[in-house]
Amino acid sequence: MSDAEFAHIDDEECRRFQVSAELAGRKWNAAILLAGARGARRFSEYRALVSGISDRMLTARIKELEAEGLIARDVQPTTPVSIAYELTASGRQLISLLHPLVNWSKARAERTELR
Amino acid sequence: MSDAEFAHIDDEECRRFQVSAELAGRKWNAAILLAGARGARRFSEYRALVSGISDRMLTARIKELEAEGLIARDVQPTTPVSIAYELTASGRQLISLLHPLVNWSKARAERTELR
After folding, report:
1. Where is the HTH hxlR-type domain (chains A, B) (predicted)?
2. SS3 of chain A
3. Which of these CATH numbers, 1.20.120.1200, 1.10.10.10, 3.90.550.10, 3.30.70.120, describes B9-114?
4. Of B1, B25, B90, Cβ closest to residue A108
5. Which terminus of chain A is more exposed, N or C, with fewer CB under 10 A?
6. Residues of chain B contacting A65 with CB distance shorter than 8 Å
7. Cα B18 off chain centre by
8. Taking CB atoms and an 8 Å limit, are A93 and B101 in contact across chains?
9. Percent of all residues in chain B with a pLDDT value above 70, rounded to a whole number
10. Is any Cβ of chain B less than 8 angstroms from the Cβ of A34?
11. Would you kindly state where each structural domain of chain A is located, as residue ranges?
12. What per-residue string of b and e applies to B82-114 under the rule 16 or more CB within 10 Å gives b?
């Protein structure tokens, strides 16, 4: 795709694009959304799939992603209560449109190894 | 696209995906790459298209994006010397695959306004 695809973008769209890219790119957010897309639902499952994150950070980021409408919290009336965190439609769309980054990163890593 | 697209992703790919998302999402990076895609070449053109960024921050981020191989610096032997900053192929690919964020952000803004 050439620059032409960006020619029509106005400053307001640029600002919103920047806000969204910085939301997705905020430390740990993409990894948490990816974990949700890979099937994580429980807190422990997110922690297992997002290597290196602390409980405190995971708790904070899940709250932020909830506030942004990208993750939904579902409290199940078991004893004790159990809580599941699932990507919302918006969260799923975001991680889905970031999927091409998987291949971009791979190609980039291979180029770096060739140097 | 369903979760199936993410089922095959292994932990190493996850880690690289996270690094790339956090590179793209680092404050100002996406806006600078977008400015380059919108035709910015001179420092002043980037500053004009990336509203709110300081000269000091723009200088630092352009250096980082150069080090990451996403922007290339071209020194032209005019008097005085003039410097152009252009997206590399890798930089162009990255901003191109982030393009869908423009529409995602727009739909998200519209949903937020309806609330």
Report:
1. 14-113
2. CCCHHHHCCCHHHHHHHHHHHHHHHCCCHHHHHHHHHCCCCCHHHHHHHCCCCCHHHHHHHHHHHHHCCCEEEEEECCCCCEEEEEECHHHHHHHHHHCHHHHHHHHHHHHHHHC
3. 1.10.10.10
4. B90
5. C
6. none
7. 15
8. no
9. 96
10. yes
11. 4-114
12. eeebebbebbbbbbbbbbebbebbeebeeeeee
Distance CA A30, CA A21 (A): 10
pLDDT in tens, B75-105: 988 888 899 999 999 999 999 999 999 999 9
What would the two tokens of residue A40 be? Answer: 């994580």
Q: Which of B103, B39, B91 is nearest to B66 (CA)?
A: B91
Q: What is the pLDDT of residue A1?
A: 44
Q: Is the model's pLDDT at B114 over the cut of 70?
A: no
- The residues near A15 (Cβ < 8 Å, ≥ 6 apart) are B51
Q: What is the pLDDT of residue B111?
A: 79
Rounded CA separation A21/A17 (Å): 6
The whole-angstrom distance between A55's CA and the closest CA on chain B is 18
Distance, CA of B54 to CA of B36 (rounded, Å) = 17
CATH 1.20.1300.10 for domain A4-114, yes or no, is no
A106 to chain B: which residues are within 8 Å by CB? 13, 16
